[in-house]
Amino acid sequence: MARKRLLLLILVFLIIPAWGKLVVLENININLHIKEDATLDIIEEHDYLYDGDFTGGSRTIKLEGLESISDVLVKEGDFEYIPGSLEKFQFQTAAKINGLAIEWTSRRPIDPEYKNTRKKMTIQYKAHGAFRFYGNYDELYWRVLDEARDGMIKKLSVKMYFPTDIDRSKVSASIIYNGQAEVKFIGENILGFSAINVGPSDSFDIKVGIPMGVIERIGFLKIQNMPLYTLFVIPFAVFFVVLFLYLRFEMGYEFFASKKKNTSRPADLMPAVSALIIDEKPDIRQVVATIYDLARRGYIEINKNQNDFEIKLIKFPVNLEEYEVKFLKAMFGDPAKEGNIINASSFKLLFSKYIPDLKEAIDDEAVKLGYFYEDRLPFKRRIYYFGWAISILMLAVCGFFNLKIILFFAPLVLFAGLLGCSLKGKSLVFSSALMMLAIIVLLARALAIGIIEQSLLLVFLISIIISGLIIVAFSGGASKKNMVAPAEKRQWLAYKRFLAGNGSAALEKENLPYSIAFGVVKNEDTERIEKYMLGE
Predict the structure, then answer these.
(1) What is the bridge-based pairing of β-strands 22-34 and 341-343?
(2) What is the pTM of this model?
């Protein structure tokens, strides 16, 4: 018996404080004004009964299916609260996972507690993007109540005001609610929804279809409850496709042949062209390598004479490639005669002026053999300009619907342009991935603050803008080669690794020109000839 009394005392002790705290949301009256620009001006009147140490209240507006909420006001009777940090008679808004939270403070903790105090709180705000547009009608789906609430609502009333006279027979209206509710026209252009004794956590949603033409179709082709990730589907697809192509045809040889070594040449290809396949740019090393290759094949003879080199034409240049004939003519004059002898030191005065033409001749030979596009630089520029063209065009179209989008994307466009102009090599992948992260952050922010409307058309256009910027960023590493070259490049890189790791093989007569062209061998002799050619 004593134990039962003790349990009863504990139960009473726990219940008494609850009796001292009470908040009842007795009535909710909502006036929903539909504007011609498809926005909603909403005025909510909440009748509260407070008893206890409550300091204020809150209202969470579901953002699912909306673009944004703006112009929030909170009033107590006719007294208007001010935005702030939740001091007395202040309110603030905060984005939450389940919607936009509006919180207000009407009593300080040090103030006397409420005793059966009634308050009429008014919340005003403007909703954007609540309508969805279909073939010949427009639809509003509105979630009236905040489900995370305590207590029962004795009476709920919603009045929807249309902007113009409307044909009632073309209006469809329904309520999604578990209890009893009523919907009917209560005025010429006023549609009313009502329910009584709405329980805690009960949802109350309304769906209204109105004929096309009552409101403007701004941001048409909108999707109801469109998930945000749809904005990134096309850009991510483009990013990974371009990344795959880049890794496959630009850097694939590094990944797939990073340790492989070829002990013999992949093909009977001139050193200058084989080095060009790897480096993609004619270099003075390739010019020097061509001289040593002509000596290897018996067309010239190179003899060191103290600090100079004596170069002799052994046989007339027949069965040579066009660029090799240019080399011999540049050294021995035109026509070149067998037995002619020159000193490498004479290159200072004669040969340096031929260097640009000889580099171009090596490049032309690679084009003729099918390793490079003939117009390599214009090819890169076409990729760059293509990315810019589609981005700017789509940006202009977006600006037609929402001018803020152009201003918002200006920094991103500038960033992408700098990437496309300056990036090369492996850094391109990292920097482009960084750009994708920046895009995600900017777009998420733009969606959060309502700059970008959640519409099918704008999502598609913005996705194309981003995709174009990705192409711009990757254009800095666009291929100069033909599609055949990457496979060849892997093989020549493996041969280069073999020479770099085997000094004796690199100096052999058959391999020496390739070692020079690849930069594997660079001794005093080759450096001196290189300086002579450059006129130093």
Answers:
(1) unpaired
(2) 0.44
